[in-house]
Amino acid sequence: MTFVHENEAEFEPMETTVRAILDDVIIQDDGIAYVDNFPDWVMKLRKLPATEYTRVFVQLAVLAREFADAGCKPVASALAALARIGLTRLVR
Amino acid sequence: MKSLIGSLLDSGGWKAYESSLIELFLDVSDSVHNTSCDRHDLAICRAFEMLETLHPARLAEAAPFFWLNLHRVRRAQGTANCHPFLRDVLMTGFDSYFHFLPDGTTFELPPSDGGALVLPRLGIRVSEASPSMLRRLSSTILEIEVDSARYTFDLPTHPGRAATCRISDEPPQFVLAVGDRAVTTSDVTNIVAENALEPFSRQIPQALALIKSVDRQLYESIRRTVQWFVPLMMPSPSVHYSRSARDLVGVVHLSEGYSGVKLAEAIVHEFHHNELYALQRTQNLTHDGDRPVYYSPWQTGPRPISGLLHALHAFSGLLKFYGAAVHTIELNEATNAWRRELCQKLRVCMAQVPVDAMTPIGHLFLKNVEHDVMEQETKLGIRSDRIPETLIAHARQWCRDHPACVQFLSLSDPG
């Protein structure tokens, strides 16, 4: 599994947790989009030591940006909130 | 019957909405932790740390007033206006999560600028007191501190419970007759009918029973979406007014003069606004933004697309309600004339929506309204293919009043 940044020819393995969150991204035929099990993901990410799992939070932030660029606001917003759980702890 | 918006909410929209509430909490919580500097800020931080111990799914169950105040804090972040709203966040948060917080949990409140003690779910309101501390002593005993004096409230018996009346269980629904900043939007704070708790608590269940007899699925949707009914006072009982607010999903405000089928109608109307607000919190129906330039047959001023969509959803929902009511209630000729007029107004309103600006969900929505109107026209045995003179006169006046918006008006006969 690889993680590709849009503007760079760099490949980074996608973190298992990020892959699992991505598997919970629901985009329905009727247009409704959301991250399933969002409350559980918040709990799980809060328990991760931010310094050890930096890439999880960075990858979530990059994914949030990509969903935002694709116009999928609900998913972008949810992923950004998940990313912030770790990122704010890293800078505090 | 269930609306399209109701179906979208059930198919994932409610999950997205709940996620957005948790996101809001996380956002404000981050900001509180990052900006704390004085003693009050640290006390607020401690309170947020207590709330953070709750599972986020539990967090999402808070009363709508908690979210209203979090929205206010987010908008006021970085300004001196933030503290009163943070106080209201702590108060309504303590109220919402009282039963899930451990004994001994203490929320120290920032100084107040006159706000009362209002705990809507616990049913306590003390106008004279501006407490500096709230503490849970046990699952039924609350302690507050006012001017260094401490008072305890035995929750099941305290007379302050008269502020709220629980009118049903599972899911609970309440009438709240409190005009206080912490539980109202600023446009209605001063017109809450605080003495209408008792009559309203009798009338609302009757109106809900009427809705149930007409359309059980609609009733179930209302039960799930609307938990709070707030009576409003008007200059005269014959003046009817109802209101919902974007940041208060789950609360409807109704003037006390409503009764019988008109009260049921107002609940159905406001429920549809609530439903659409919940969906719009996370899902875009349009790319157009909030430019108030469009004509609405129900308004004198120009409206944003969102206003048109709310009108379409609320009034087509009402039209369907009355369409179903013919089997249960004897509708008089005036009501049937009003239904015919509603079909015409809905058609005119639909014509104002710039289709190119709609998202896939927005297109689905418009198609559904069109279908609903057509179905009701068939039931009424009419075709709304001519625009009545009164509506044309209304539109002409609108053009005279808002010349800059005339380019957005579309008034060709739909037929």
Keyword list:
heterodimer, A: 92 residues, alpha+beta, two-stranded antiparallel ribbon, two-stranded antiparallel sheet, 4 helices, globular, B: 415 residues, five-stranded mixed β-sheet, four-stranded antiparallel β-sheet
Structure summary:
The complex is a heterodimer of chains A (92) and B (415). With 92 residues, chain A is an alpha+beta fold.
Write the layout of secondary structure elements.
The complex is a heterodimer of chains A (92) and B (415).
Chain A: E1 2-4, E2 11-13, H1 16-23, E3 25-27, E4 33-35, H2 38-47, H3 54-69, H4 73-91
Antiparallel strand pairs in A: 1-2, 3-4
Helix pairs in contact in A: 2-4, 3-4
Chain B: H1 4-35, H2 39-52, H3 56-59, H4 64-76, H5 82-97, E1 106-108, E2 117-119, E3 124-126, E4 133-136, E5 141-146, E6 149-154, E7 164-168, E8 173-176, H6 197-214, H7 216-225, E9 228-232, E10 242-243, E11 251-255, H8 260-280, H9 305-325, H10 333-352, H11 360-380, H12 389-401
Parallel strand pairs in B: 8-9, 9-11
Antiparallel strand pairs in B: 1-4, 2-3, 4-5, 5-6, 7-8, 10-11
What does this structure look like?
The complex is a heterodimer of chains A (92) and B (415). Chain A is of the alpha+beta class and 92 residues long. Chain A is 58% helix and 13% strand. Chain A has 4 helices and 4 strands. In chain A, the strands form 2 sheets. Chain A has a two-stranded antiparallel sheet with strand order 1-2. A two-stranded antiparallel ribbon of chain A has the order 3-4. In chain A, a hairpin with a 6-residue loop joins strand 1 (2-4) and strand 2. The longest helix of chain A is centred in the C-terminal third of the chain and has 19 residues, at 73-91. Chain A is globular and about 40 Å long. The model of chain A has no long low-confidence stretch (mean pLDDT 90). Chain B is α+β, with helices and mostly antiparallel strands and 415 residues long. Helix content of chain B is 49%, strand content 11%. Chain B contains 12 helices and 11 strands. In chain B, the strands form 3 sheets. Chain B has a 5-stranded mixed sheet, with helices on one face. In chain B, a hairpin with a 7-residue loop joins strand 10 (242-243) and strand 11. In chain B, helix 2 packs parallel to helix 5 (82-97), helix 8 (260-280) packs across helix 9 (305-325) and helix 10 runs antiparallel to helix 11 (360-380). The longest helix of chain B is centred in the first third of the chain and has 32 residues, at 4-35. Chain B is globular and about 70 Å long. The interface between A and B is medium-sized, with 24 and 29 residues.
